[in-house]
């Protein structure tokens, strides 16, 4: 068994999600990148462990800036031992592609079906709908498969890695594709779940809904943390309890009724804490404790704002739902060049996500509006002119890690806040958040939420590994 340890506190770690670019999804062995989720049994570690804990602000003190320490730090970090300098880099520049869809989700495929001149660029098609047992026999899944099959000539497999001076750059299997000036870009890049913050929140066995669905057979007995319909949808699969921060409930009437009919307990708490007990994980809460195989979080779907920001799209913090959203209208239009769909709009429902890809082309508008009214997102469009008041964050239950890449805890952020630092960028410069492997894809959003900040950091290219 291989052990993954954090850089500073030397704690055992494991990915919370298998998405490329997130913490601990890759390790380096003999100078080669290894995908951890493809080697689950090899790297998953159950035991409690001794760890070294200290404030991350110490790292930035003058005492530790000696040349000797700076020269030796890389020896203790998870870095490749070598790069292949002889690797041939092939670049294809395409000026003919006029309309592109970036992303692999339901909404992107829906847009592809309705767009005559588009190509869709995606690393894969592993949307939750293909993993969700509640959607085992749903017709939409068959529809999605049909779109993929019938539009195979308009699909390119690759990863968007950022906007450069040369154009939009995509990493393909054997080369790079550069699209200089597309007239229309549809962002269907989806969303992700951010982890809750509490003591022990970095332990192996605390995983996202998406990872739970991927390894459903390994985690039989779980509890769920979340405040939206995704939490109930997860609990309906696992037949488990749901815990959420007091005052953060954002469930729809439809799913509350489903939870009641299925006997799903929903408990509001103020504090949580986790520890390991052999192969089990223990979750302590206001009313007692739960001993389970895994803790699954499905709190709120956070759009992948780093992609929108990299493309120059403005975004704001939507206080009511505690998510950052690209600035767009109800039809998904950002401006004459950019559109957003599905998870990039915070949409979590499969059917609604599919419809969001259609309305860009003025299809199924009435149906989309009717479905949207049943979600908490409708407030964003219907009452945007009203001043929003801050609400209780659904993420914070105690002093846990907000940045697992750099071992930074909520207490570290609180200390810097007391010193007068109020922005995510200032926290980056004083604590080092967003400077680790994930480059802010998790921590900047959590810290931004804590600070109630309207802006995060600047997400520069490349957003993902260049190879």
From TrEMBL:
Entries under InterPro entries matching the protein: BFD-like_2Fe2S-bd_dom, BFD-like_2Fe2S-bd_dom_sf, FAD/NAD-bd_sf, Metab_Enz_Cyan_OpOx_G3PDH
Keywords: Oxidoreductase
A Gene Ontology molecular function term of the record: oxidoreductase activity
Keyword presence, Oxidoreductase: yes
Database matches in Pfam families: Fer2_BFD (PF04324)
Superkingdom per UniProt: Archaea
SUPFAM superfamilies: FAD/NAD(P)-binding domain
Domain BFD-like [2Fe-2S]-binding, chain residue ranges per copy: 401-452
PANTHER family named in the record: ANAEROBIC GLYCEROL-3-PHOSPHATE DEHYDROGENASE SUBUNIT B
Name of the protein in its database record: BFD-like [2Fe-2S]-binding domain-containing protein
Protein species of origin: Acidianus infernus
């Amino acid at each position: 068994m291989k052990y993954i340890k954090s850089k500073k506190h030397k704690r055992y770690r494991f990915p919370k999600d298998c998405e490329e670019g997130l913490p601990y999804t890759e390790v380096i062995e003999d100078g080669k990148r290894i995908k951890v989720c493809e080697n689950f049994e090899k790297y998953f570690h159950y035991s409690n462990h001794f760890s070294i804990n200290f404030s991350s602000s110490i790292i930035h003190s003058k005492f530790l800036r000696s040349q000797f320490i700076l020269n030796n730090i890389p020896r203790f970090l998870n870095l490749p031992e070598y790069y292949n300098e002889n690797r041939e880099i092939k670049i294809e520049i395409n000026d003919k592609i006029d309309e592109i869809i970036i992303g692999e989700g339901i909404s992107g495929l829906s847009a592809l079906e309705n767009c005559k001149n588009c190509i869709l660029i995606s690393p894969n098609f592993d949307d939750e709908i293909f993993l969700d047992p509640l959607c085992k026999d749903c017709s939409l899944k068959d529809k999605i498969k049909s779109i993929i099959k019938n539009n195979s000539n308009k699909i390119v497999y690759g990863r968007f890695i950022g906007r450069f001076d040369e154009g939009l750059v995509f990493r393909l299997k054997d080369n790079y594709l550069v699209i200089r000036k597309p007239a229309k870009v549809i962002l269907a890049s989806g969303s992700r779940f951010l982890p809750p913050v509490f003591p022990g929140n970095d332990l192996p066995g605390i995983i996202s809904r998406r990872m739970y669905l991927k390894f459903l057979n390994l985690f039989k007995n779980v509890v769920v943390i979340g405040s939206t319909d995704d939490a109930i949808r997860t609990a309906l699969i696992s037949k488990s309890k749901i815990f959420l921060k007091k005052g953060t409930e954002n469930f729809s009437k439809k799913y509350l009724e489903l939870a009641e009919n299925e006997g799903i307990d929903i408990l509001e708490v103020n504090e949580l804490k986790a520890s390991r007990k052999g192969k089990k994980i223990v979750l302590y809460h206001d009313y007692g404790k739960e001993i389970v195989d895994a803790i699954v979080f499905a709190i709120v779907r956070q759009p992948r704002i780093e992609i929108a920001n990299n493309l120059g799209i403005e975004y704001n913090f939507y206080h009511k739902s505690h998510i950052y959203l690209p600035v767009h209208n109800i039809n998904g239009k950002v401006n004459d060049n950019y559109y957003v769909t599905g998870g990039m709009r915070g949409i979590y429902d499969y059917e609604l996500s599919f419809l969001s890809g259609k309305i860009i082309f003025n299809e199924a508008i009435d149906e989309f509006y009717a479905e949207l009214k049943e979600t908490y997102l409708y407030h964003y469009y219907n009452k945007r002119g009203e001043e929003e008041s801050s609400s209780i964050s659904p993420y914070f239950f105690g002093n846990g890690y907000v940045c697992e890449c750099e071992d930074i805890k909520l207490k570290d952020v609180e200390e810097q806040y007391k010193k007068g630092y109020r922005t995510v960028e200032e926290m980056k410069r004083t604590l080092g958040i967003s400077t680790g492997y994930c480059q802010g894809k998790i921590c900047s959003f959590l810290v931004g939420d804590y600070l109630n900040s309207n802006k995060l950091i600047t997400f520069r290219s490349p957003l993902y590994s260049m190879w």
